[in-house]
Structure formats: structure tokens, C-alpha cells
Design goal:
CATH class: Alpha Beta
Helix content: 25-40%
Number of helices: 7
Structural class: alpha/beta
Bound molecules: S-adenosylmethionine
Radius of gyration: 19 Å
Keywords: Methyltransferase, Transferase
Organism: Aspergillus cavernicola
CATH architecture: 3-Layer(aba) Sandwich
Protein name: S-adenosyl-L-methionine-dependent methyltransferase
Largest sheet: 7 strands, mixed
Oligomer: single chain
Number of domains: 1
GO molecular function: methyltransferase activity
């Protein structure tokens, strides 16, 4: 049996997780330089959806950059991380939706833009088609999807020129273990490169892949996000059921303490972003 079950979200949805998601938001926005790719036109009366919105940080942030007449709806399987609705901008709503099930009829054909970000931990066996078709169903004809991910499978360790750490570092060795763990759950991430081809295959046009350079000054931010997610995984999954590959929650947390010492000594994680934009 795979360590992570199909449809199971391996990370927590508590306040620590919210802080990490908002940190990730800063990291991705600074790296990409946009919330919505410049190719995506936003009419004054646009309706925009954000799937698996987490804390709602993307809709909230976007609402401050588009006319107040643009309606932005965030959706997530849980409202654990939503701010109270009376604190949201008037043109932002946050609602419950399971995107691994068929979208309800009332959401079909409603949106000019549908975005999804950091959903890779729920895509199995390089097959995002079910989710993609759901996103496309929500679009009006001519609407755009934007799908943003960082490649947590192929992340690598980089060292500052001032670092005296010897290779392989504990973090480098652990990335091999991490990849075996993702393999064992079918969390493969090759689909990030083939998503535009899939968009074309299901009849979308103008499908493009963008791979922005990572920003060296943001490597510590990226590292904090990844190590934070691993810590949440240690509590959420491994404490209850230790895993053959990753071990127990306590073991992973001990390793994390060693990784943080390496980070203080000049090591960091480097991840590639993938942005797919396509039109219905
Ligand atoms: C890594 S977070 C991404 C949050 C947000 N997109 C961002 O970029 O800040 C993944 C989110 O997916 C949500 N999620 C997990 N399974 C889901 C499902 N089946 N349908 C919708 N959302 C889901 C989780 O609750 C979590 O908020």
C-alpha cells in the first residue's frame, strides 16, 4: 500500500501551515513577478477562480491588483485556513470544493480565469487529466487556466561559496530518500513538463509552459517552505504510522534539526517553478 493514499493531503491545515503557505506565496510571487501571467487578459467584469486556495492568500493578494469589479472566488476542500468572511475584500469569496470530484453544474462555464497552485502533492502517476478537465469545465469559452507548481521531486541542494560543508550533505542524501518516498506514492512530477501537451490534447489552445529562473536570494525562503512542509508531514502522517522509507515522525524531526544546522552553514534547497497557461 502506498504511504500516501490517493486523494490524501499529506500536509497539515493548521496555523503553522497557514504561515508556511503565506511564505510560499511571497516566494512564488517574487520569483514569477506576477500573480496572473501577463498573457491573461482580465476584463473589468471578470470572474476568477482559485482552486485549492489554502489560506486564500492568492485571491486576497490579487484583489488588491485588479479593479474592484473583478470577482475572485477561492475554493478548497477545507475552510480550516480561511480568514473569517467578514475580513475578506468585498470582491473575494472563499468556499468549499473537492476538485478531485466532478465539479457541480452551477460552477461550469462561469469563469474567465481558473488558477491552481501547489496542488502537485495530490496528482498521482503523472496524470492531472481529471483535475485539468474540471478546471476547464469551470471556464467560459475563451477563458484561461493558469497552473503553477514547484518541482518538489527534482529539488537540489546548493551551497554558498562561503560554506565549508562537504558533499554529500545530510540534506543531499535525504533528497534521495525523499524521491523514493514520492515514487512509492506515485507522486512523480514529470507531468509538469507535459501539461501543455495535455491541454492541447483535450482541445485547449495557446498552451504554453514557462520556467522562470529561481532567485538565489530566495533560496532560504524556499528551504523554509520545504522543511516546514516536511515537519508538518512528520506530525500529520508519520507520528500515526511510521513509514518504511521515511521512518517515524520523531526520526524525521531529528533529521530536520540537522538540516537546519546545514542551512545555517550555507546550504539551501533550489526548486524550479513550472507555469502552464492555456485557453479554452
Ligand atoms: C499546498 S496547499 C496550496 C494552497 C494555495 N493554492 C497556495 O498556493 O497558497 C494545497 C491545498 O490543497 C487543498 N486540498 C487538498 N485536497 C483538495 C481537494 N481534493 N480539493 C480541493 N482542495 C484540496 C488543501 O486543503 C490545501 O489548502
Amino acid at each position: 500500500m502506498a504511504p500516501i493514499q490517493e486523494g490524501q493531503y499529506m500536509i497539515q491545515t493548521n496555523s503553522q501551515s497557514s504561515a508556511r503557505l503565506n511564505l510560499q506565496h511571497y516566494w512564488v510571487e517574487e520569483t514569477l513577478g506576477y500573480l496572473l501571467h501577463p498573457l491573461i487578459a482580465v476584463p473589468e467584469d471578470a470572474r476568477i477562480a482559485d482552486i485549492a486556495t489554502g489560506t486564500g492568500i492568492w485571491p486576497i493578494s490579487l484583489s488588491r491588483r485588479v479593479p474592484s469589479t473583478v470577482q475572485i472566488d477561492g475554493f478548497d476542500i477545507t475552510d480550516d485556513q480561511f480568514p473569517p468572511s467578514d475580513w475578506l475584500p468585498p470582491n473575494v469569496s472563499l468556499r468549499i470544493l473537492d476538485i478531485l470530484k466532478r465539479v457541480p453544474e452551477e460552477l461550469k462555464g462561469q469563469y474567465d480565469v481558473v488558477c491552481i497552485r501547489y496542488f502537485g502533492v495530490l496528482i498521482r502517476n503523472n496524470d492531472p487529466e481529471f483535475v485539468l478537465r474540471n478546471l476547464v469545465d469551470m471556464l467560459k469559452p475563451g477563458g484561461y487556466i493558469q497552473w503553477v507548481e514547484s518541482d518538489v521531486y527534482n529539488q537540489s541542494v546548493v551551497k554558498s561559496v562561503y560554506s565549508t560543508l562537504l558533499s554529500p550533505t545530510a540534506l543531499e542524501r535525504y533528497l534521495e530518500v525523499w524521491r523514493r518516498y514520492l515514487d512509492s506514492s506515485g507522486l512523480l512530477y514529470e507531468w509538469l513538463k507535459t501539461l501543455p501537451a495535455l491541454c492541447k490534447a483535450i482541445g485547449m489552445s495557446d498552451a504554453q509552459l514557462f520556467t522562470p529562473e529561481s532567485v538565489p536570494a530566495l533560496r532560504l525562503t524556499a528551504t523554509a517552505a520545504v522543511l516546514g512542509a516536511w515537519e508538518e508531514l512528520s506530525y500529520k502522517i508519520l507520528d500515526g504510522s511510521p513509514d518504511e522509507i521515511l521512518g517515524s515522525g520523531t526520526q524525521l524531526r531529528e533529521k530536520l534539526a540537522a538540516f537546519w544546522r546545514e542551512v545555517a552553514a550555507g546550504a539551501a534547497l533550489d526548486l524550479q517553478f513550472y507555469v502552464t497557461v492555456a485557453r479554452k
